[in-house]
Specification:
The chain crosses the membrane at residues 28-49, 91-112, 151-171, 210-235, 260-280. This protein is an all-alpha fold. Helices cover 69% and strands 0% of the residues. The radius of gyration is 24 Å and the shape is elongated.
Length: 294
């Protein structure tokens, strides 16, 4: 009797491989990568490429337009706009990444403990999340910023404290369904503690939510930092920030006569946020299993 031939398992057909293919087929997401990667390289490596520092003053080049010496021109005290735009990108990315990392950690812990910790923990945590979500975000942001004061660390603290409640609800919704699965019930029956359940089951099954949320939230955090700095409640001068560069260029004289002082930091802010949002939308579609049905 002839043996029945079995076809070998297809490689590259797992969830991650399918997600990667969906992401690679997303033109907007790839455009975001093409824009974002060179910008991040310039932000990280500009001290090795350019001969100016963010606060170097050239008294012979006050309010000068783009030239061979200063590619994007100078500001009212002779500082190089290009270097300050790149340094502002460093500050914005630092604030955004650190604040989002903190808010993701808080949101995951709150949501997962609420789902896995029992009825009392669920009730207490969810009522606290409801309270946090009822606070007006703009007013809360301004109040917290005025209390903590200006600076990089206070700005990170303010943004991270306002960004986690939505993620906590998303993680809780995912893990509420997960905790009824046989392997989680079996782990509980074998005496697994809360830490084991969160690390071995909660985190791996929430990683798609965390990645997509973090990517999209980085763009929101950059906008929040720029807004706070524009209002004088974020990163204070003379440290370069896209927000305080726009604030310094808000006078009518600068807006009309020296447009390079607000045009380039504003363009960097818009392009960066758009690129990150394109990547975040691509990741969201890539991790959505319903995309295979389209």
């Amino acid at each position: 009797m002839a043996a029945v031939g079995l076809s070998p398992p297809r490689r590259g057909n797992g969830p991650l491989a399918r997600a990667f293919r969906r992401f690679a087929a997303n033109g907007a997401a790839l455009a975001g990568i093409v824009i974002l990667v060179p910008m991040l390289v310039l932000i990280a490596a500009y001290p090795l490429i350019l001969g100016h520092r963010p606060n170097d003053i050239d008294l012979l080049a006050l309010n000068k337009g783009p030239s061979a010496a200063h590619w994007l021109g100078t500001d009212g005290v002779g500082r190089d706009i290009l270097v300050r735009v790149l340094q502002g990108g460093r500050i914005s990315m630092l604030v955004a990444i650190v604040s989002v990392a903190i808010s993701v950690a808080i949101g995951f812990l709150m949501g997962s403990v609420s789902a896995m910790g029992g009825r009392v923990a669920d009730t207490l945590i969810m009522r606290f999340v409801d309270l946090a979500m009822t606070l007006p975000p703009v007013i809360s942001l301004l109040v917290l910023a005025s209390i903590t004061g200006a600076g990089i660390v206070p700005t990170i603290a303010v943004i991270s404290l306002l960004s986690w409640p939505v993620l906590a609800r998303m993680v809780r919704a995912r893990l509420m369904e997960l905790r009824e699965r046989d392997f989680v019930v079996a782990s509980r029956g074998m005496g697994a503690g809360l830490g084991h359940l969160l690390w071995r089951h909660g985190l791996p099954n929430s990683i798609d939510i965390l990645v997509v949320y973090a990517t999209l939230q980085i763009a929101a955090a950059i906008l929040l930092e720029a807004g706070l700095s524009f209002l004088g409640l974020g990163v204070p001068p003379p440290e370069a920030s896209w927000g305080n560069m726009l604030n310094a260029a808000r006078s009518t004289v600068v807006l009309e006569q020296y447009p390079w002082q607000w045009l380039f930091p504003g363009a960097a802010l818009v392009i960066t946020v758009l690129a990150i949002n394109f990547v975040g939308d691509g990741l969201r579609d890539a991790f959505d299993p319903r995309s295979d049905l389209n």
